[in-house]
Amino acid sequence: MRITDAKVIICSPGRNFVTLKLITEDGIHGLGDATLNGRELAVASYLSDHVIPLLIGRDARRIEDLWHYLYKGAYWRRGPVTMAAVSAVDVALWDIKGKALDVPVYQLLGGASRDGVLVYGHASGTDIDDTVRAVAEYARLGYKAIRAQSGIPGLESTYGVGRGKMYYEPAEKDAPVENAWNSELYMNFVPRLFERLRKEFGSDLHLLHDVHHRLTPIEAARLGKELEPYHLFWLEDPVPAELQESFRLIRRHTTTPLAVGEVFNSIFDCQQLIQEQLIDYIRTAVVHAGGISHLRKIASLAEMYQVRTGCHGATDMSPVCMAAALHFDLSVHNFGIQEYMHHSAETDRVFSHSYTFADGMMHPGDAPGLGVDIDEKLASNYPYRRAYLPISRKLDGTMHSW
Ligand code: CS2
Ligand code: MG
Protein backbone atom coordinates (compact mmCIF):
# COMPACT_ATOMS: atom_id res chain seq x y z
CA MET A 1 0.00 0.00 0.00
CA ARG A 2 2.20 2.80 -1.34
CA ILE A 3 1.76 6.48 -0.51
CA THR A 4 1.20 8.18 -3.87
CA ASP A 5 0.25 11.72 -2.94
CA ALA A 6 0.37 14.14 -0.02
CA LYS A 7 -0.99 17.63 0.58
CA VAL A 8 -0.56 20.25 3.27
CA ILE A 9 -3.85 22.09 3.70
CA ILE A 10 -3.61 25.45 5.47
CA CYS A 11 -6.89 27.11 6.38
CA SER A 12 -8.44 29.43 8.92
CA PRO A 13 -12.10 28.61 9.60
CA GLY A 14 -12.36 30.56 12.86
CA ARG A 15 -8.64 30.01 13.58
CA ASN A 16 -5.59 28.67 11.75
CA PHE A 17 -5.08 24.95 11.13
CA VAL A 18 -2.47 22.96 9.23
CA THR A 19 -3.63 19.52 8.06
CA LEU A 20 -1.65 16.81 6.31
CA LYS A 21 -3.51 14.56 3.88
CA LEU A 22 -1.79 11.37 2.72
CA ILE A 23 -3.25 9.36 -0.17
CA THR A 24 -2.38 5.75 -1.02
CA GLU A 25 -2.37 3.87 -4.33
CA ASP A 26 -5.69 2.23 -3.31
CA GLY A 27 -7.32 5.66 -3.03
CA ILE A 28 -7.50 5.64 0.78
CA HIS A 29 -6.67 8.94 2.42
CA GLY A 30 -5.60 9.68 5.99
CA LEU A 31 -5.46 12.98 7.88
CA GLY A 32 -3.04 14.31 10.49
CA ASP A 33 -3.12 17.60 12.39
CA ALA A 34 0.11 19.65 12.18
CA THR A 35 -1.06 22.89 13.81
CA LEU A 36 1.48 24.73 15.97
CA ASN A 37 -0.30 27.79 17.34
CA GLY A 38 1.41 31.01 16.20
CA ARG A 39 4.09 29.16 14.16
CA GLU A 40 1.88 27.32 11.66
CA LEU A 41 3.81 28.00 8.45
CA ALA A 42 7.08 26.65 9.87
CA VAL A 43 5.50 23.20 10.21
CA ALA A 44 3.81 23.50 6.81
CA SER A 45 7.22 24.17 5.24
CA TYR A 46 8.89 21.35 7.19
CA LEU A 47 6.26 18.98 5.81
CA SER A 48 6.18 20.24 2.21
CA ASP A 49 9.87 20.94 1.75
CA HIS A 50 11.42 18.10 3.75
CA VAL A 51 9.02 15.33 4.77
CA ILE A 52 6.62 14.79 1.86
CA PRO A 53 9.43 14.12 -0.67
CA LEU A 54 10.54 11.26 1.63
CA LEU A 55 7.06 9.75 1.89
CA ILE A 56 6.07 9.28 -1.73
CA GLY A 57 6.39 5.62 -2.71
CA ARG A 58 6.68 4.33 0.88
CA ASP A 59 4.49 1.60 2.38
CA ALA A 60 1.74 3.32 4.42
CA ARG A 61 1.34 0.23 6.62
CA ARG A 62 4.77 0.65 8.25
CA ILE A 63 3.76 3.20 10.87
CA GLU A 64 6.42 2.46 13.48
CA ASP A 65 9.24 2.22 10.97
CA LEU A 66 8.24 5.50 9.28
CA TRP A 67 8.10 7.23 12.65
CA HIS A 68 11.73 6.27 13.39
CA TYR A 69 12.76 7.07 9.82
CA LEU A 70 11.48 10.65 10.20
CA TYR A 71 12.64 11.12 13.80
CA LYS A 72 16.11 9.59 13.59
CA GLY A 73 16.69 10.15 9.90
CA ALA A 74 16.55 13.95 10.28
CA TYR A 75 19.60 13.88 12.59
CA TRP A 76 18.11 17.06 14.22
CA ARG A 77 15.80 15.49 16.75
CA ARG A 78 12.79 16.75 18.70
CA GLY A 79 11.55 20.35 18.89
CA PRO A 80 7.97 21.51 18.35
CA VAL A 81 8.20 22.07 14.58
CA THR A 82 9.79 18.70 13.80
CA MET A 83 7.55 16.80 16.18
CA ALA A 84 4.31 18.39 14.92
CA ALA A 85 5.29 17.25 11.42
CA VAL A 86 6.18 13.72 12.59
CA SER A 87 2.88 13.63 14.53
CA ALA A 88 0.86 14.57 11.46
CA VAL A 89 2.40 11.74 9.42
CA ASP A 90 1.90 9.23 12.25
CA VAL A 91 -1.77 10.14 12.77
CA ALA A 92 -2.53 10.12 9.03
CA LEU A 93 -1.03 6.60 8.82
CA TRP A 94 -3.17 5.35 11.74
CA ASP A 95 -6.21 6.83 9.97
CA ILE A 96 -5.26 4.99 6.76
CA LYS A 97 -4.70 1.71 8.61
CA GLY A 98 -8.09 1.95 10.31
CA LYS A 99 -9.83 2.64 7.00
CA ALA A 100 -7.93 -0.14 5.22
CA LEU A 101 -8.95 -2.68 7.90
CA ASP A 102 -12.43 -1.12 8.29
CA VAL A 103 -12.13 -0.53 12.06
CA PRO A 104 -12.01 2.57 14.25
CA VAL A 105 -8.46 3.41 15.34
CA TYR A 106 -9.11 2.62 19.01
CA GLN A 107 -9.69 -1.03 18.03
CA LEU A 108 -6.13 -1.10 16.67
CA LEU A 109 -4.82 0.27 19.98
CA GLY A 110 -6.11 -2.61 22.11
CA GLY A 111 -9.80 -1.75 22.08
CA ALA A 112 -11.82 0.31 24.53
CA SER A 113 -10.68 0.35 28.16
CA ARG A 114 -13.76 2.36 29.17
CA ASP A 115 -17.21 3.29 27.87
CA GLY A 116 -16.47 6.98 27.36
CA VAL A 117 -13.86 9.67 27.85
CA LEU A 118 -14.24 12.13 30.76
CA VAL A 119 -13.63 15.66 29.48
CA TYR A 120 -13.27 19.08 31.08
CA GLY A 121 -14.44 22.40 29.67
CA HIS A 122 -13.10 25.95 30.20
CA ALA A 123 -15.19 28.31 32.28
CA SER A 124 -13.84 31.79 32.64
CA GLY A 125 -15.05 35.21 33.71
CA THR A 126 -13.86 38.73 34.28
CA ASP A 127 -14.26 38.37 38.08
CA ILE A 128 -15.42 35.81 40.66
CA ASP A 129 -19.18 36.33 40.10
CA ASP A 130 -18.77 36.10 36.35
CA THR A 131 -16.68 32.93 36.69
CA VAL A 132 -19.31 31.36 38.99
CA ARG A 133 -21.91 32.00 36.26
CA ALA A 134 -19.64 30.45 33.62
CA VAL A 135 -19.03 27.33 35.76
CA ALA A 136 -22.81 27.02 36.32
CA GLU A 137 -23.35 27.12 32.55
CA TYR A 138 -20.86 24.29 31.96
CA ALA A 139 -22.42 22.25 34.78
CA ARG A 140 -25.83 22.78 33.16
CA LEU A 141 -24.45 21.41 29.89
CA GLY A 142 -23.52 18.21 31.70
CA TYR A 143 -19.77 18.73 32.30
CA LYS A 144 -18.49 16.76 35.30
CA ALA A 145 -15.13 18.53 35.27
CA ILE A 146 -14.59 22.25 34.70
CA ARG A 147 -11.48 24.39 34.52
CA ALA A 148 -12.03 27.80 36.13
CA GLN A 149 -10.00 30.93 35.23
CA SER A 150 -10.82 34.47 36.24
CA GLY A 151 -9.61 37.98 35.55
CA ILE A 152 -7.44 39.23 38.44
CA PRO A 153 -8.39 42.53 40.12
CA GLY A 154 -5.57 44.99 39.42
CA LEU A 155 -4.44 43.29 36.18
CA GLU A 156 -5.94 44.57 32.97
CA SER A 157 -5.91 41.27 31.07
CA THR A 158 -4.87 37.77 32.03
CA TYR A 159 -3.79 34.93 29.75
CA GLY A 160 -6.13 31.95 29.68
CA VAL A 161 -9.32 33.89 30.36
CA GLY A 162 -11.70 33.31 27.44
CA ARG A 163 -13.59 35.96 25.52
CA GLY A 164 -17.27 35.12 25.25
CA LYS A 165 -18.97 32.38 27.18
CA MET A 166 -18.31 29.18 25.28
CA TYR A 167 -15.34 30.08 23.18
CA TYR A 168 -11.67 30.27 24.04
CA GLU A 169 -8.93 31.56 21.78
CA PRO A 170 -5.68 32.93 23.16
CA ALA A 171 -4.08 33.75 19.77
CA GLU A 172 -4.44 37.27 18.33
CA LYS A 173 -4.37 38.16 14.64
CA ASP A 174 -1.42 40.09 13.18
CA ALA A 175 0.52 41.05 16.34
CA PRO A 176 0.93 39.60 19.85
CA VAL A 177 -1.06 41.13 22.69
CA GLU A 178 0.91 42.02 25.85
CA ASN A 179 -0.66 40.86 29.12
CA ALA A 180 0.31 42.27 32.51
CA TRP A 181 1.31 39.90 35.30
CA ASN A 182 1.81 40.12 39.03
CA SER A 183 2.34 36.93 41.04
CA GLU A 184 1.31 38.44 44.41
CA LEU A 185 -2.06 39.70 43.11
CA TYR A 186 -2.66 36.36 41.44
CA MET A 187 -1.68 34.19 44.41
CA ASN A 188 -3.78 36.22 46.83
CA PHE A 189 -6.79 35.97 44.54
CA VAL A 190 -6.98 32.37 43.29
CA PRO A 191 -7.75 30.66 46.65
CA ARG A 192 -10.72 33.06 47.07
CA LEU A 193 -12.04 32.00 43.66
CA PHE A 194 -11.96 28.31 44.56
CA GLU A 195 -13.36 28.88 48.04
CA ARG A 196 -16.38 30.48 46.41
CA LEU A 197 -16.69 27.80 43.71
CA ARG A 198 -16.73 25.02 46.32
CA LYS A 199 -19.37 26.93 48.30
CA GLU A 200 -21.54 27.30 45.20
CA PHE A 201 -21.08 23.87 43.63
CA GLY A 202 -20.34 21.49 46.51
CA SER A 203 -17.66 18.82 46.55
CA ASP A 204 -18.66 16.51 43.65
CA LEU A 205 -17.82 18.71 40.66
CA HIS A 206 -14.21 18.30 39.49
CA LEU A 207 -12.51 21.71 39.43
CA LEU A 208 -9.25 22.39 37.58
CA HIS A 209 -7.02 25.43 37.25
CA ASP A 210 -4.21 26.42 34.85
CA VAL A 211 -1.32 28.64 36.02
CA HIS A 212 0.18 28.82 32.49
CA HIS A 213 3.77 28.44 33.78
CA ARG A 214 3.68 31.78 35.60
CA LEU A 215 5.06 31.01 39.09
CA THR A 216 8.38 30.12 40.64
CA PRO A 217 8.60 26.73 42.41
CA ILE A 218 8.19 28.17 45.92
CA GLU A 219 5.27 30.37 44.80
CA ALA A 220 3.63 27.33 43.21
CA ALA A 221 4.20 25.37 46.42
CA ARG A 222 2.39 28.07 48.39
CA LEU A 223 -0.51 28.21 45.93
CA GLY A 224 -0.88 24.41 45.91
CA LYS A 225 -0.92 24.38 49.71
CA GLU A 226 -3.51 27.14 49.96
CA LEU A 227 -5.74 25.39 47.41
CA GLU A 228 -5.69 22.08 49.31
CA PRO A 229 -9.03 22.65 51.13
CA TYR A 230 -10.80 23.00 47.75
CA HIS A 231 -9.65 19.60 46.41
CA LEU A 232 -8.69 20.51 42.87
CA PHE A 233 -8.66 17.74 40.26
CA TRP A 234 -5.38 19.34 39.20
CA LEU A 235 -3.24 22.45 39.23
CA GLU A 236 -1.78 22.79 35.73
CA ASP A 237 1.58 24.13 34.58
CA PRO A 238 2.45 25.78 37.91
CA VAL A 239 6.01 26.55 36.70
CA PRO A 240 7.92 26.35 33.42
CA ALA A 241 9.03 22.73 33.17
CA GLU A 242 12.35 22.86 31.35
CA LEU A 243 13.85 22.21 34.79
CA GLN A 244 12.05 18.99 35.62
CA GLU A 245 13.53 18.70 39.11
CA SER A 246 11.93 22.01 40.14
CA PHE A 247 8.77 19.99 40.70
CA ARG A 248 10.48 18.27 43.64
CA LEU A 249 10.18 21.49 45.59
CA ILE A 250 6.47 21.93 44.81
CA ARG A 251 5.78 18.27 45.58
CA ARG A 252 7.45 18.50 48.98
CA HIS A 253 4.93 21.11 50.10
CA THR A 254 1.53 20.21 48.69
CA THR A 255 -0.91 17.37 48.03
CA THR A 256 -2.73 19.32 45.31
CA PRO A 257 -2.43 17.10 42.19
CA LEU A 258 -0.14 18.50 39.48
CA ALA A 259 -0.48 18.38 35.69
CA VAL A 260 2.07 19.46 33.10
CA GLY A 261 3.19 18.81 29.54
CA GLU A 262 1.15 20.63 26.88
CA VAL A 263 4.34 22.21 25.50
CA PHE A 264 6.40 18.99 25.64
CA ASN A 265 7.22 17.22 22.44
CA SER A 266 8.84 13.95 23.47
CA ILE A 267 9.15 11.41 26.24
CA PHE A 268 12.52 12.93 27.16
CA ASP A 269 10.76 16.13 28.34
CA CYS A 270 8.81 14.26 31.01
CA GLN A 271 10.91 11.21 31.82
CA GLN A 272 12.14 12.57 35.18
CA LEU A 273 8.78 14.09 36.11
CA ILE A 274 7.18 10.68 35.61
CA GLN A 275 9.87 8.44 37.05
CA GLU A 276 10.20 10.50 40.24
CA GLN A 277 6.39 10.73 40.52
CA LEU A 278 6.64 14.52 40.60
CA ILE A 279 3.37 14.92 38.69
CA ASP A 280 -0.03 13.23 38.63
CA TYR A 281 -1.11 13.92 35.04
CA ILE A 282 0.89 14.15 31.83
CA ARG A 283 -0.67 16.57 29.32
CA THR A 284 1.27 15.83 26.12
CA ALA A 285 -0.93 16.11 23.00
CA VAL A 286 -1.11 13.85 19.95
CA VAL A 287 -0.23 16.76 17.62
CA HIS A 288 2.76 18.06 19.57
CA ALA A 289 4.34 14.93 21.01
CA GLY A 290 4.93 12.64 18.06
CA GLY A 291 1.45 11.36 17.27
CA ILE A 292 -0.46 8.37 18.59
CA SER A 293 2.63 6.12 18.43
CA HIS A 294 4.83 8.28 20.65
CA LEU A 295 2.03 9.28 23.02
CA ARG A 296 1.39 5.60 23.70
CA LYS A 297 5.02 5.22 24.77
CA ILE A 298 4.69 8.17 27.15
CA ALA A 299 1.48 6.66 28.54
CA SER A 300 3.14 3.27 29.05
CA LEU A 301 6.02 4.85 30.98
CA ALA A 302 3.51 6.87 33.03
CA GLU A 303 1.43 3.78 33.77
CA MET A 304 4.35 2.19 35.65
CA TYR A 305 4.54 5.23 37.94
CA GLN A 306 0.79 5.72 38.45
CA VAL A 307 0.76 8.92 36.46
CA ARG A 308 -2.38 9.35 34.32
CA THR A 309 -2.93 11.10 30.99
CA GLY A 310 -4.73 14.44 30.56
CA CYS A 311 -4.21 15.47 26.94
CA HIS A 312 -4.15 19.10 25.91
CA GLY A 313 -7.29 19.83 23.86
CA ALA A 314 -7.68 23.59 23.40
CA THR A 315 -9.16 24.94 20.14
CA ASP A 316 -5.74 25.01 18.43
CA MET A 317 -5.83 21.17 18.41
CA SER A 318 -7.89 20.69 15.21
CA PRO A 319 -10.80 18.21 15.08
CA VAL A 320 -8.30 15.77 13.51
CA CYS A 321 -6.18 15.94 16.68
CA MET A 322 -9.29 15.79 18.86
CA ALA A 323 -10.45 12.60 17.12
CA ALA A 324 -7.00 11.01 17.47
CA ALA A 325 -6.86 12.01 21.15
CA LEU A 326 -10.23 10.39 21.80
CA HIS A 327 -9.14 7.08 20.21
CA PHE A 328 -6.02 7.21 22.39
CA ASP A 329 -8.00 8.16 25.52
CA LEU A 330 -10.58 5.43 25.07
CA SER A 331 -7.94 2.73 24.70
CA VAL A 332 -5.10 3.65 27.02
CA HIS A 333 -5.33 2.06 30.46
CA ASN A 334 -4.03 4.96 32.56
CA PHE A 335 -6.28 7.63 31.08
CA GLY A 336 -7.18 10.46 33.47
CA ILE A 337 -9.11 13.18 31.66
CA GLN A 338 -9.24 14.93 28.27
CA GLU A 339 -9.45 18.69 27.74
CA TYR A 340 -12.27 19.67 25.37
CA MET A 341 -13.01 23.09 23.96
CA HIS A 342 -15.80 23.52 21.46
CA HIS A 343 -14.53 24.49 18.05
CA SER A 344 -16.33 27.27 16.23
CA ALA A 345 -19.23 26.38 13.89
CA GLU A 346 -16.99 27.30 10.91
CA THR A 347 -14.30 24.87 12.08
CA ASP A 348 -16.85 22.09 12.51
CA ARG A 349 -18.25 22.69 9.03
CA VAL A 350 -14.80 22.32 7.45
CA PHE A 351 -13.88 19.27 9.57
CA SER A 352 -16.80 16.82 9.77
CA HIS A 353 -16.33 14.35 12.63
CA SER A 354 -17.96 11.33 14.22
CA TYR A 355 -16.97 12.09 17.83
CA THR A 356 -19.77 13.04 20.18
CA PHE A 357 -20.29 14.66 23.59
CA ALA A 358 -23.00 13.63 26.07
CA ASP A 359 -23.26 14.00 29.81
CA GLY A 360 -19.68 15.17 30.40
CA MET A 361 -18.18 12.32 28.36
CA MET A 362 -16.98 11.96 24.77
CA HIS A 363 -16.67 9.05 22.37
CA PRO A 364 -14.67 8.92 19.11
CA GLY A 365 -17.45 7.01 17.28
CA ASP A 366 -17.11 3.78 15.31
CA ALA A 367 -16.38 5.05 11.81
CA PRO A 368 -13.32 3.35 10.25
CA GLY A 369 -10.06 5.20 10.93
CA LEU A 370 -10.24 8.41 12.95
CA GLY A 371 -13.79 9.30 11.86
CA VAL A 372 -12.88 12.80 10.74
CA ASP A 373 -12.64 14.42 7.30
CA ILE A 374 -11.85 17.79 5.73
CA ASP A 375 -13.91 19.61 3.11
CA GLU A 376 -11.05 21.03 1.05
CA LYS A 377 -13.26 23.20 -1.11
CA LEU A 378 -14.85 24.86 1.90
CA ALA A 379 -11.45 25.13 3.60
CA SER A 380 -10.15 27.15 0.63
CA ASN A 381 -12.69 29.87 1.49
CA TYR A 382 -10.80 30.51 4.75
CA PRO A 383 -7.25 31.67 3.93
CA TYR A 384 -4.51 31.66 6.56
CA ARG A 385 -4.05 34.80 8.62
CA ARG A 386 -0.90 35.29 10.69
CA ALA A 387 -1.63 35.10 14.44
CA TYR A 388 0.44 35.11 17.62
CA LEU A 389 0.05 33.96 21.20
CA PRO A 390 0.23 36.80 23.74
CA ILE A 391 3.31 37.63 25.73
CA SER A 392 3.35 38.58 29.38
CA ARG A 393 5.15 41.39 31.23
CA LYS A 394 5.40 42.19 34.91
CA LEU A 395 3.90 45.50 36.03
CA ASP A 396 7.32 47.17 35.71
CA GLY A 397 7.63 46.04 32.09
CA THR A 398 9.97 43.04 32.58
CA MET A 399 9.17 40.09 30.29
CA HIS A 400 7.58 37.42 32.44
CA SER A 401 7.58 33.63 32.48
CA TRP A 402 11.04 32.25 32.35
C1 CS2 B 1 -4.03 26.25 27.62
C2 CS2 B 1 -4.03 26.60 26.16
O1 CS2 B 1 -5.67 24.67 27.13
C3 CS2 B 1 -4.78 24.97 27.90
O2 CS2 B 1 -4.49 24.35 28.90
O3 CS2 B 1 -2.83 26.29 28.27
O4 CS2 B 1 -4.80 27.74 26.04
C4 CS2 B 1 -2.73 26.92 25.51
O5 CS2 B 1 -2.15 28.02 26.11
C5 CS2 B 1 -2.93 27.11 24.05
O6 CS2 B 1 -3.52 25.96 23.52
C6 CS2 B 1 -1.63 27.43 23.37
O7 CS2 B 1 -1.71 27.25 22.02
MG1 MG C 1 -2.69 24.80 29.74
Overview of the structural elements:
The protein has 402 residues and is α/β, with parallel strands linked by helices. The chain has 13 helices and 19 strands. The protein has helices at 40-55, 63-73, 80-101, 105-108, 128-140, 183-201, 217-227, 246-253, 271-275, 291-304, 319-331, 345-350, 376-379, and strands spanning 3-11, 17-24, 29-33, 117-125, 145-150, 172-173, 178-181, 206-210, 234-236, 258-260, 281-282, 308-309, 338-339, 351-353, 356-358, 361-363, 372-374, 387-388, 391-394. Strands 4, 5, 8, 9, 10, 11, 12, 13, 15 and 16 form a 10-stranded mixed beta sheet that branches. It has a 3-stranded antiparallel beta sheet with strand order 1-2-3. A two-stranded antiparallel sheet has the order 6-18. Strand 9 (234-236), helix 8 (246-253) and strand 10 (258-260) form a beta-alpha-beta unit. Helix 2 runs antiparallel to helix 3, helix 5 crosses helix 6 and helix 7 runs parallel beside helix 8 (246-253). The radius of gyration is 20 Å and the shape is globular. The model has no long low-confidence stretch (mean pLDDT 96). Bound molecules: D-mannonic acid and magnesium ion. Magnesium ion binds at residues 210, 236-237, 262.
Q: Globular, elongated, flat, extended or rod-shaped: what is the shape?
A: globular
Question: Strand percentage, roughly?
Answer: 15-25%
What structural class do the secondary elements suggest? Answer: alpha/beta
Helix amount, in percent? 25-40%
Ligand inventory: D-mannonic acid, magnesium ion
The helix tally amounts to 13
Report the C-alpha radius of gyration, rounded. 20 Å
* Low-confidence sequence ranges: none
Biggest sheet features: 10 strands, mixed
End-to-end Cα distance: 47 Å
What is the tally of beta strands? 19
